[in-house]
DNA sequence: AATCCCTGTTCAAACGCTGAACGCGCACCG
DNA sequence: CGGTGCGCGTTCAGCGTTTGAACAGGGATT
């Protein structure tokens, strides 16, 4: 698929480290290589990320995965949306914990 | 698979309603019929739940999915474990939210 | 030229999940 | 007594997602 979490995590990682390889990104985010390639391609299809060929000073060829202006805008939007979702999740877990605590308290009096 | 969440939810549901059909249980927990059947069978294989043939007063045949003594013990264990995991998750989300808030604050000054 | 290493890309296989379909047994009715 | 309907548990082909081994390409090193 391509969830908001994927979008957020990838855009954030690329914002800070546009010079990582797909393998490094995958490892950093805990994604498989295939999934990362899929997600990255999706971001590029949307025009949020642009791959630029570049070579390190004295090293191999590689790509630079840079956020486009549209990507920067989108990253801001996704971040706000993701935050809101996390806040809701947080509240829900709080209730769940309260219920679980009562349950544990009752089960061995 | 069969996560702690599955174990907890099913054991809890059965503790309160041993007389529900698999379809009713699935609907209540938001599981598909196939998944519920799989999970329930797993609990029975472990010896935590026992299916007893019974017939409602003036109705059809059905099963009673009752927790065994071992099942009651296990339910208590799983509940504690599940609570602990939720507390950790809660703390982690709290940190994540804090980071996201700072990120949002910085992105449109 | 040959070898090595690190790229990005691909895609068959594995996995988890779904829900339509099936067989069974009971209750009701003609 | 047969027929029909209903709800039950069970099954499994099909689906969408995910995995990671395998591949092709290009620069560096020998």
Automatic annotation (TrEMBL), chains A, B:
Which lineage ranks, top first, belong to the organism behind this chain? Bacteria, Pseudomonadati, Pseudomonadota, Gammaproteobacteria, Oceanospirillales
Name of the protein? MarR family EPS-associated transcriptional regulator
User: Pfam families, from UniProt?
Assistant: HTH_24
